[in-house]
Amino acid sequence: MNPQGSIPVEETVAVEEPLEIHVNGTPWVTTMRTPGHDRELAIGLLYTEGILANTSDIDSIDVEDNVVIVHGDLSAESHTRGFVRSSSCGVCGSASLESVLSRNPPKVSADGFTLNFHDIERLVDKLKSSQSYFHTTGGMHAVAQFNQDLEIVNLAEDVGRHNAMDKIIGKSIDDIPHSLFGFLLSGRVSFEMVQKAVMAGSPCIVAIGAPTTLAVQLARQHGLTLIGFARESRFNVYTGAWRIKG
Which of 101, 128, 152 is the last residue of a domain? Predict the structure, then answer.
């Protein structure tokens, strides 16, 4: 504490603004997010919620300030509409676990993707060094997508961890299933995060934070490797330990 009292300083704060997503002229959801890559965010969310099958279903996407308008061969009529998705919660109060899993996600392959024990620490170090917005604000989550060579091929930062993951999936939707790519999370692992990895066909999630019981249950059910508390040269493997070598 300054002995002469407080002094004014400049501080960088994470930006959080609402984004409305409209489907065929009808408002569907308002999500609280960090502006940027709004088109990819809308595509990723529509896909992981089972409303969009692939980009060929889309006729047009218009981004106007804080509104994304999607037109095409897709319908949100049977899905919860008009809800608000906060930055701390994903699909709060929308679809149930059973309805999400009924959307026929791609099967997660049990072969072709492995990690060595020491790879986990290297991945966490790479994520920390890549979080430019976190370093300046201290208030951003990061999600990265990595390959077998431990290269980060996609990275997104947002006030909402689920938004960051949707941005990555929306950007790479034409490459689904992501059977040779894992997800790296800067925070905890909720059910929504595992659901999105399942919908993308990804075999692995590595997180700095803790998973929830429902996240572990869903990862086990779909054959994902789920790693949590990856920090300080240690980590916990909750499911899919056969992918960890050495």
Answer: 101
